[in-house]
Design a protein that fits this description.
This protein is of the alpha+beta class and about 350 residues long. The protein folds into 2 domains: about 240 residues, Zn peptidases (Aminopeptidase); about 90 residues, Peptidase M42, domain 2 (Elongation Factor Tu (Ef-tu), domain 3, Beta Barrel).
Length: about 350
Amino acid sequence: MNERQRTFLDDLLSTATPSGFETPGQRVWLDYVEEFADETRVDDYGNAVAVYEGAPEAPSIALAGHGDEIGLMVRDITDDGFLKLTRIGGSDKTVTRGQYVTVYTSDGPIEGVVGQVAIHLREADDNEYDDINEQYVDIGVEDEAEARELVDVGDPITFDTEITDLADRRVAARGMDNRVGIWTAAEAFRRAVEAEPDATVYAISTVQEEIGLKGARMVGFDLAPDAVIATDVTHATDQPDSPGNKGGDIDLGAGPVVARGSANHPKLVAAARTAADDDDIDVQLQASGSYTGTDADAFYTAKGGIPSLNVGLPNRYMHTPVEVIDLDDLDEAADLLAAVAARAAEFGPFSVDV
């Protein structure tokens, strides 16, 4: 990963994109991909697409990630000026208390903190986690009137965290889910385009995945490519407290993860494994017997069925402010998607033999 590619990743990670409020991040993504694209376009809800036009008779393949992140939202404002909360997506009530947050208002960002009763004032046995709708943000004002001058109900909120480099090319940040996916889609698109493939190649950054795969449904129906590879995070299970009966044996730094089963079309699974073997890319396999939990689930049932594949980036501590990924996994994921896209004409047609 060179300096420009790392800057692109950091720009994505430092731009807030809660579901329904993705526009700033989509602009960052488009600014990167439009240099390599024959065309870019955005639909009415903000799904962003870059296009490389291949030969008319060749297949088309889309490389996708979702551009939104989980977050919080102002649900109400109390008489004392505290902001009551609701979730955007699958926010975790066990990690919200005592965190710095940013409220994104129409007049610009407002800083705040999620309140927590001091340990000295809590009952000794009171270690329950309040639901998010019982928690609140303190922005420092005196009363409701002062708060309403700054904040509106419905303003989105994210944790205010730093991008932190750890040892051994690991990085921690909020919202790796799924900035790493749209980074991979964009960078794989660039690498595939350099190979001048016969196939038409799309790169996609979808919206509103965290609240039900909404953007993928829209753009999958609109584009209807011959195949889609959706890149998202998946659970790395190599931390000490990872439950042994959930997830597979997925390690950080051992390469991107190719899912098998459910949405994952066998021809695309085979293509990814062949490309990985040919290009000496380490991959891990994951069982997805019922669903992937990613945009692949929406793409593969769109427009009568689009052959799809989920490629995962190992991620520790998902849906917390300190998600951790490995930069080598990220780079290899881009190599893998680019290799499949560049050889899509060879790997297709993407249909099963019965």
